[in-house]
Amino acid sequence: MEIGSFTLLSPEDFSFNFNNNNIDFSWFLDMENGNNKKRGRKDFEEDLVNEKSGFGDILSSILMLDEEAKQEQEQEQEFQWFTDSDQRTDFFESGYNEKFEEINGFFDQFESQYSEMKQLDDSRNKRARKSGLTDTTAPANIVPVGSDNVSPSQAATGSGQQRRLWVKDRSKDWWDKCNHPDFPDEEFKRAFRMSKATFNMVCEELEPAVMKKNTMLRDAIPVRQRVAVCIWRLATGEPLRMVSKRFGLGISTCHKLVLEVSAAIKTVLMPKFVQWPDEIKTKRIKQEFESATGIPNVGGSIYTTHIPIIAPKASVAAYFNKKHTERNQKTSYSITLQGVTDQNGAFTDVCIGWPGSMSDDQVLEKSAFYQRATRGYLRDVWVVGNKGYPLMDRVLVPYSHQNLTWAQHAFNEKIGEIEKVAKEAFARLKGRWSCLQKRTEMKLQDLPNVLGACCVLHNICEMRNETMDPELKFELFDDEVVPENNIRSPAAAQARDHIAHNLLHHGGRTTSAGFL
């Protein structure tokens, strides 16, 4: 501790100051005046105590002054520190601003250089495309980044050519042979279930939706090859490993192409090729059915089939198919596909994707056709179904009870001919597109697009009179269950009885004696 110097006071000052502090120092004055009178020991001790307390107050005052001086010094130091801090902050801010300006200048320079390089690459690519030159150092097969079994990529540049991505070499001999103009049409049809002309038409329709642009690293897969991968997969039902070998593409790439092209077919082609007929077409369909069976006002035939699937992770019981499980002797799961066909077996309405545990009448109630029928949009039109559907307005079904009359037998026989149209259409659908006959590796949410694509392609083949190989014939099993409430419209029941009566008396007895 540092103690500051102070000036010694005179006896008068002591007397003045200390008297103000109620301290008696009169004995100093007695000594100066020559008073040598001796005092008692008791008085002397009291004076000594008073003297000590006075010196203690002096020391306390001195310490207080010293403490105040230290506080003032600390305050000055703090003020000086704040001043220095402000100077340092100004210094750092000036340095930061300078660095920020330098970084901005560097970024602007980098951006301008990048723009120049991009323009240079674009100009090179344009010249390369115009000249039609190919990079001789590139591998024979170039597949998209991310395909399976791809070797480590290496960017290579040819002399003045665009960059290429080095990947695993795969053989495309089979597809190149099929895509050659001299490839026989019969063999092409055997592989893709349609002629070259129909395949070309499908490619032209889908080109705006599925075409991809070339990049700096690789060329895009051509539209024809994209469509061919999807159609061959749907037609054969072969695993993706076989698709990869046939077309020289990665497995994941083939799977992606199947989903993309199927979605494009459903989005682009379904509104054109699967639609409810207008009045003119409906009139023609009625005439065709009436001339064949004698039943008037029939605008279509309805049928529901089941597509096997892998057991889903959620709602397993909803997709459990009891009929298939009993017939196949193993647990089966499925989704439904309901369709209305015209007299030629082309679909005019489809309802896809409801769980396999639902009956035919439950699926019917979920369909767009049912909504049109109940809202009165279908006038003077019957759609014929089997015993699994209820008798209701706009839906005509056969008699399902026992002890039928001659008229009812005749009606059931004619109705069976119309039912057969839809059933055979579904048999051709499953026979032509074999992927519908067995479970696939696709996710449940992807199946509606695939099934919709199969229905669209079926209609295209039917409308273009594409014949089907007899070896591809598929046999459907009748799994319909008669609903409990089979008659839901008394008016429809009366109309059915009237039609049956007219068939017997005006159309002749068409049943055989075996029904009696």
Automatic annotation (TrEMBL):
Tagged with keyword Metal-binding: yes
Compartments in which it is found: Nucleus
Keyword line: Hydrolase, Metal-binding, Nuclease, Nucleus
Name of protein: DDE Tnp4 domain-containing protein
Listed transmembrane segments: none
Required cofactor(s): a divalent metal cation
Primary localization class, coarse: nucleus
Homology family: Belongs to the HARBI1 family.
Domain of life (superkingdom): Eukaryota
Region entry Disordered, spans: 118-162
Span of domain DDE Tnp4: 302-459
Pfam families recorded: DDE_Tnp_4
InterPro entries in the record: HARBI1-like, HARBI1_dom
Polar residues: bias regions: 148-162
